[in-house]
Amino acid sequence: MEKIYETAYAKINLGLDVLGKRSDGYHEVRMVMQSVGLSDAVEIEEGEGLVVETDHSGLAGGPDNLAWKAAELLARCCGKIPNVHIRLNKKIFLAAGLAGGSSDAAAVMRGLSRLWQLDLTAPELEKLAAELGSDIPFCITGGTALAEGRGEILTELPEAPELLLVLAKPKLEVATGWVYGNFRQQKVNQRPDIDGIIKALEQSATGLLLESCGNVLESVTIPAHPVIAEIKQKMLAAGATCALMSGSGPTVFAVAEKKEITERILTELSELDLETAVTTTVQKERI
């Protein structure tokens, strides 16, 4: 029996700006999103009925899982019966601001397109993915992209240089809806320079890229969870050239110039109760 394998890459936000609230209740965003090597392994094969299994005790595999919803959506839209068995081997931290669930869903859509020989293009998959969640369209191919609207309007950008990263997540969960619901423009002290990030990518100017990074959602999440600010401070003290919260949090990523600095960062963070990983930026998948 054929088995399909897909890799679901996590993402970070090199820049995240919120422009205002839309009439549909979502927020208008302008973000530069970037895939990173921390990833889940997704296995798909034909089976009896729809089954989603995970190897993480904190993540259920039932109908509330985005991978399940992705299989149902693709089946419904393409006239298929979702008799498939999906296994999620988790490495991406849960509820972390790294789009782990979104990336799993995107991987399921890519994998089922192959299994069912649908030959769907990336834009076709992205359009479907937007019905499930704002981060899923980006996760279809990943890489480096400008995300606008509620996050589903994507413009491919020049690939970011390979950056060495340390990811650190405190043992807490942050609800994305709560963060956006409590966002207030007047509380933002520093905005990312999204145009500066794009210019830096076009010029392969790593220094300008890191100077332009920022995340306005820190203005909500950090006051509620000061440990995020502590993680950032420790990362910078250990030699990181940039430290920033990803998405709505609580994961923080640090950019390190060399392996020795990643080791210093991990040592500096060791007294805190964190999930950590060392990884790099990765390029776009071609479909």
Count structural domains. Answer: 2
* CATH T-level fold name of the largest domain: Ribosomal Protein S5, domain 2
Run of helices and strands = EEEHEHHHEEEHHHEHHEEHE
**For the CA atoms, what is the radius of gyration?**
19 Å
Largest beta-sheet characterization: 7 strands, mixed
The coarse silhouette is globular
CATH class membership of the largest domain? Alpha Beta
**Termini separation:** 23 Å
Look at the structure and give the mean pLDDT: 95
Number of helices: 10
What's the β-strand tally? 11
Uncertain stretches of 5 or more adjacent residues = none
Task: Outline the fold blueprint.
Blueprint: E1 3-21, E2 27-46, E3 51-54, H1 66-78, E4 84-89, H2 100-115, H3 122-129, H4 136-141, E5 144-148, E6 153-156, E7 164-170, H5 176-181, H6 194-203, H7 206-212, E8 214-215, H8 218-224, H9 227-237, E9 242-245, E10 252-256, H10 259-269, E11 274-280
Active site: 11, 135
GO biological process, one term: isopentenyl diphosphate biosynthetic process, methylerythritol 4-phosphate pathway
Domain GHMP kinase C-terminal: 199-271
